[in-house]
Amino acid sequence: TEKLVFEELKLRVRELENELIKCKQKIDKMSAEVVDSNPYSRLMALKRMGIVEDYEKIRTFTVAVVGVGGVGSVTAEMLTRCGIGKLILFDYDKVELANMNRLFFQPHQAGLSKVEAAEHTLRTINPDVQFETHNYNITTMDNFAHFMDRISHGALQDGKAVDLVLSCVDNFEARMVINTACNELSQIWMESGVSENAVSGHIQLIIPGETACFACAPPLVVAANIDEKTLKREGVCAASLPTTMGVVAGILVQNVLKYLLKFGTVSHYLGYNAMQDFFPTMAMKANPTCDDRHCRKQQDDYKKKEAERPKKVVEQAVEEEVVHEENDWGIELVSEQTDEELQAASGPVPDLPEGITVAYTIPDKTGTSEGETVEETEQSLEELMAQMRKM
Amino acid sequence: TEKLVFEELKLRVRELENELIKCKQKIDKMSAEVVDSNPYSRLMALKRMGIVEDYEKIRTFTVAVVGVGGVGSVTAEMLTRCGIGKLILFDYDKVELANMNRLFFQPHQAGLSKVEAAEHTLRTINPDVQFETHNYNITTMDNFAHFMDRISHGALQDGKAVDLVLSCVDNFEARMVINTACNELSQIWMESGVSENAVSGHIQLIIPGETACFACAPPLVVAANIDEKTLKREGVCAASLPTTMGVVAGILVQNVLKYLLKFGTVSHYLGYNAMQDFFPTMAMKANPTCDDRHCRKQQDDYKKKEAERPKKVVEQAVEEEVVHEENDWGIELVSEQTDEELQAASGPVPDLPEGITVAYTIPDKTGTSEGETVEETEQSLEELMAQMRKM
């Protein structure tokens, strides 16, 4: 009976809380006043410290977070506490006790949808942020159309496109769907991922037409120093750690803040190898023979824009792939397969900086060598997605 | 009136929650079963993945966290979700709305002591963890004695010493007090810190007698690429970001897990420069002329132990300070002061890896040159602490 009373009270408190949150006046202006009662004093101090020119601009931005799991939930919480203007959350999953080894969700939320539970917690943390949540799988046809619509019209101002899409999903299909949408919409986005063995992860910035998209090359992952075959066992429950996911969410949102508020260097690719505390970085340009026709179209548009741009007297250095020839960090990859065995079994392994490798390789297509353009397939989005689902 | 009803209900729910938590049976064994209702399935999977040999050993460890602020609270949450045996939390501060730009605490906890609020949240997250909290300032004489006692007798088993002390404090005096205690008790600990401009941080492992303690050398910090003079303005409210603090807590607890569960490489020093996404590492041995007499005593003990140890046929390479001579990452420190100006104004700047510098320098003592041993002062702990408080 005590448990029943408790559950009833909890429900009523939740209702009252929700009503109170809605009553709360949103602030007009972020205060920089240094008093204990000001939740923005330590953020506005970034201006006085010479780090950010106009911190309050954060209130004008809208960010979409796809996947509200171990990385996505912490990402959403960090952006909420930073005072982002609006967050749009997408996830079809429910909170489970099996998620409790990662930050954010609490046991009493088990059974709730992740977006519902997240919205409640985030509103409590910062009532100044606007939230929009979608409890569905973006990879089905109807939901994909709605997802595209919200990305292109969900911003705070005038139904404009969001400022950034963050991929915090845990599977290949969903990443490919986000990639397809962002290429078509010319939407800048950031990718994140954590390995199945829980001890590595990465973030990646994708500017359609300019930097490599998710279809331009096999996904880049952080090289593991453990037997690769262990990683590929089918049907094994993935491991996860709150540490690795917290670090990946932290470097992801840091990159978001640097990109939106224009400070520091925005990373194109940043990896995290937790076993050796090694953080490889790199940059990769879009592939002219990318399988995604929208990516190729964005590349054409980008080239035209670049050509039209008035030439500066001081030529900007063209960004090139950073390759560290020497093993400065003394890291050795331990694998029972040699590089030659790997290459023989599949496609060529591209030349990548120390510590970064590809998730898989693609065998050479007959008749297609580097530099050639592949045949325009002009497949419909439907056909492409049907193909993807078979992967 | 609705607000009053709400506050009453909240209080009652809190009471009931606390009672329920106490009723809950702690688990006997961590299950590795892959079901949605098992909070440990993704952690126990680390064994199957070949990362950790015996994950369940985590339940036997006790960790003390000193400072439950932006880094300490997230550190405690990560350890709680990982299923640590026991946590001992120290903090004298109260939760304020001005803390809401960092993870963990929520607005409704404003006014509560940080340790009380943290314990409530952490117990809700994982009732299998044992908690002990101390709402006091460790730097006063009485509290310091109690702090020493809890460090040396607070472990889960038989009143033994804790397995690790984590310093998550935000000021020099508290760090020095933890250093003093750990040197005297021969207690292994880890240091963490975040810069006042919110865009860099570090963690450091200190093994008394073996690696440099906090008094062996000026504290190492991550080199900022901004005007150093900005950083040293007095009375300016420090900036902070949930991203930087989340990353520092993540790399700290990752190092704790690697140290306790014996996997990967435990870092001696790992820095984080958020402006350039650069993560410098290094290692530094204890200084034979350290000002802390307990550090020097631990060094003697360590040397004796090393000498007594049977020599292995294959000699282990002595760990040396890692110095990267080349600027592999193309990072330039931008400062309006030249290195020469800095050196002229104070003491010598030691030879450190790219990206790491000292918080301050110590002018050469007259008559004391490198290699000489300084006069044994044999000051009492009380005298030392009185001196420290004047700093």
From TrEMBL, chains A, B:
It holds the Pfam family ThiF. GO terms for molecular function: ATP binding; metal ion binding; UFM1 activating enzyme activity. The keyword Coiled coil applies. GO terms for cellular component: cytosol. Residues 6-33 form a coiled coil. Belongs to the ubiquitin-activating E1 family. UBA5 subfamily. This is Ubiquitin-like modifier-activating enzyme 5. It comes from Salmo trutta (Brown trout). The lineage of its organism: Eukaryota, Metazoa, Chordata, Craniata, Vertebrata.
